[in-house]
Structure formats: C-alpha cells, structure tokens
Design brief:
It is built from three helices and five strands; from the N terminus they run H-H-E-E-E-E-E-H. With 92 residues, it is α+β, with helices and mostly antiparallel strands.
Length: 92
C-alpha cells in the first residue's frame, strides 16, 4: 500500500476527503520525524515504537566488484511493533 492508497482507505473509513487525509498523514510524518530528530522516541500504543539508534562503522562489500569498503557510522531509526499489532497479525 502506498501513501495515496492509504489516504483513500483512511478517507473512506472516516468519511473525510482524501486531501484532508493526506494533510493528516504529512503532519503525522513531520511530528514523528521532528521527535526522532530531537532524540525522542515515539510510542503509539498497540501499534509500535519508533526510536533512534546509532549504527557503528562496519565493513561492507561492493556487490558489483566484491571490493571491501568501510561503511561510515550513521544515525538510523528502528521500529518495534507493539503487542496489539503483533496480536492482530497473529489473529489473536
């Protein structure tokens, strides 16, 4: 499902316009991104937990040439699904 398909589904379930739903999705994305940038995790009850983590420098390999190269350290985001989401996925 892409962003437009998600917006259409939400709009139909909430009886609002797709434009309003897209605005909501964009705003939610901005709020989550801003929180993560400021080193705050975001927890959505029964859905999941977004948290920032530091990936350390490591060795990698160029898939085309097979040559080893260093992959620099960077910040990344992890998502841990919540119990409610796991239960729904598993039919509980």
């Amino acid at each position: 499902m892409n962003k437009i398909e998600l917006a259409k589904e939400i709009a139909s379930r909430m009886s609002v316009t797709v434009t309003e739903t897209l605005r909501f999705i964009d705003t939610m994305n901005e709020v989550i991104t801003d929180s993560i940038i400021h080193d705050e995790s975001v927890i959505i009850q029964n859905f999941g937990h977004y948290m920032i983590w530091n990936q350390s420098e490591r060795m990698g390999r160029n898939p085309r040439t097979g040559q080893e190269c260093a992959i620099p350290k960077r910040m990344s985001v992890k998502f841990k699904p919540g119990k409610g989401l796991i239960d729904k996925i598993n039919g509980k």
